Amino acid sequence: MAKEIFTMSDVWLKFAQFLGTLNGENVKRESYVRTPEYEAALEAWKETEQEWEAFLETLPADGQERAEEMKERLEDFSSAQEKRAYIQGYADCVQALYHMGLLKENEDLKWAEKMDVH
Question: Which of 34, 63, 91, 107 makes an SS bond possible with 59, Cβ 3.0 to 4.6 Å?
């Protein structure tokens, strides 16, 4: 059986896909982290949401549509940043475990800082 060869990009893509599914898990679980900053931002949005809707109504239809599109893009960007930070946290954790000697490197998977990456 031929040995499959993975690039670091392949490995991190699979890692990101796995963590992406984990990130979308049940937010009601006991271990789900909700920081004070998140709670404050959520509360601020809840207080502002009705004001946002009222503001939209003052705009012409095309302005409303454009404002909603811009808000959706900002939400998409924020979500992508959050997912990236979540996955980066896991990658940092794996690296920390490795440097503590709790994980071993194998010959097929090398750490990025040890690779000649261009």
Answer: 63
Distance in angstroms (rounded) separating the CA atoms of residues 92 and 106: 18
Region for 101 from its dihedrals, namely left if φ exceeds 0, alpha if ψ lies in -120 to 50, beta otherwise: left
pTM of the model: 0.60
pLDDT digits (tens, 9 = 90+) for 2-61: 556 666 677 777 777 776 666 655 667 777 778 899 899 999 999 999 999 999 999 999
Q: Does residue 87 contact residue 20 with C-beta atoms inside 8 Å?
A: yes
CA distance 20 to 94: 16
Whole-number pLDDT of residue 115? 46
Q: What is the secondary structure of 75-110 as a DSSP string?
A: HHHHHHHHHHHHHHHHHHHHHHHHHTTSS--BTTB-
Determine contact, residues 94/103, Cβ cutoff 8 Å. Answer: yes
Asked whether the beta carbons of 20 and 83 are under 8 A apart, the reply is: yes
